Amino acid sequence: MNFNHLKIKVSTKWLVKERFISFLQVIVYRIPFLGKVLRVMGRIFLFVGDLEKTEGEKLKYLKLLQNDCQNPQSFGSSYGYEDEDGEFRRTLDYHKQLQDKNFKGSKSESELLYKHAIEKIFGIIKSDDQIKNFVNFGVSYAHIDSILAKLYPQIEFLGIDRSRYTKLYNEWAFSDIANMKFIAGDVMEVLLKTKFDNGIFFHMRTLTLLPKSFIEKLYKEVFKSEFRYIIGLEPIGISRQSFRPYEFLEEDRPSILYRGFMFIHNYFGILKRAGFNIVQSELVKTNHPHEDARILSFVGERKR
């Protein structure tokens, strides 16, 4: 299968700017004194101040990309948010964002991402009346789930998150929707204990924070739990490691650093080895302020 439609195009101006910043990061990281000198030279150089820190973080996550830990889901693993409070604050941020009167048209990926997610999931459910379960791994604030749960009361919606506070908050916020449930804990334990035949396993803005070895294991457990579909919506862009669009393949290939603590994985190769065919794939452009920012949207269907 050809995935050329998933290659991101950016302007030469943006690419030159990002390469220049990356070069400065390396210089300032290796010569910290230079950053101090530049900072005192005037406001024109103020942006240099954080480059040493940014380069240090990039090297840290490049190392994590190569050295997967035993339990990347756990707080303190260096993958994703550092602690339970930080993760819950992000849940509150997403809820607050939705309540903002200026949410529509704002410089955020969330508005168009939520719209696309609801349309994508709605389309799959509409095309398959056998679906009985929907599991959202990394649910955060369960906005999407709540809209779909009201439309499909015959389907059980389960949101899984690491944070106990997120679980309690969602239970409070959506207490009036009977077919929504939440779990705080290890997704692997849930999959080992329960079968979700003819179900949808959904993840959004979650696997970009986790290592490839975890995703390989996760998709295999999803297959064993008898899900029919995996729907993924994950951020991608021009890698700050290679400065090239990532080439997706159905064969195995290494993951790469995207930016910050996010990775780009070859989801299609991992899906295929886990027993799923790739039936849909596209790039979604949102209102994210970064020129290269896209959402990789894909659907994997269980091989029959």
List keywords for this structure.
304 residues; alpha/beta; Rossmann fold; seven-stranded mixed sheet; two-stranded antiparallel sheet
Could you write a compact summary of the structure shown?
This protein is an alpha/beta fold. It has helices at residues 12-30, 32-39, 51-66, 84-99, 110-127, 143-151, 164-173, 187-193, 212-224, 267-274; strands spanning 133-137, 156-161, 180-184, 199-204, 227-236, 256-257, 263-264, 276-284, 294-302.
Write the layout of secondary structure elements.
Layout: H1 12-30, H2 32-39, H3 51-66, H4 84-99, H5 110-127, E1 133-137, H6 143-151, E2 156-161, H7 164-173, E3 180-184, H8 187-193, E4 199-204, H9 212-224, E5 227-236, E6 256-257, E7 263-264, H10 267-274, E8 276-284, E9 294-302
Parallel strand pairs: 1-2, 1-4, 2-3, 4-5
Antiparallel strand pairs: 5-9, 6-7, 8-9
Provide an overview of this structure:
This protein has 304 residues and is of the alpha/beta class. It has a single domain, classed as Rossmann fold. 41% of the residues lie in helices and 18% in strands. It has ten helices and nine strands. A seven-stranded mixed β-sheet has the order 3-2-1-4-5-9-8, with helices on both faces. A two-stranded antiparallel sheet has the order 6-7. β2 (156-161), α7 (164-173) and β3 form a beta-alpha-beta unit. α1 crosses α2 (32-39). It is globular, with a radius of gyration of 20 Å.
